[in-house]
Amino acid sequence: MQEKFDMQIRNxxxxxxxxxTEIISNVISTHLVPDLMGNLRSYAKQSFRCTACGKSFRxxxxxxxxxxxxxxxxxxxxxxxxxxxxxxxxxxxxxxxGKYQKARIxxxxxxxxxxxxxxxxxxxxxxxxx
Length: 130
Ligand SMILES: [Zn+2]
Known about the structure:
Layout (H helix, E strand, L loop, with lengths): L1 H13 L5 H25 L3 E3 L5 E2 L14 E3 L3 H4 L3 H10 L4 H18 L14
Antiparallel strand pairs: 1-2, 1-3
Helix pairs in contact: 1-2, 2-4, 2-5, 4-5
Bound molecules: zinc ion (ZN).
The site of zinc ion has 7 residues, from loops.
């Protein structure tokens, strides 16, 4: 998606008749916001998987381990939820997409921070530099 999106922006910048800001705004509404919201939802509804036998649990059991005694891990990570967050934040800073779009991204960012806590120097993703 990243590449396709980069090309779209480059094309829009080249063609004067196309409003780049409008395209960015569209991508935010149709891809980035639904993606972030969907990921947060999947994170909240995720299942847990045993590291040894692979059995999955709909929720973390009270004993916090698998029936076979091994540890359980979350199937959805913070990184996968935040995949496009930095891209989205950068776009709303760089382009004048309006208060509404900007507020949506910042609200989602706040929500992600509420769920996971403040991020502390996480590993950067390739998409952070696009
Ligand atoms: Zn197990």
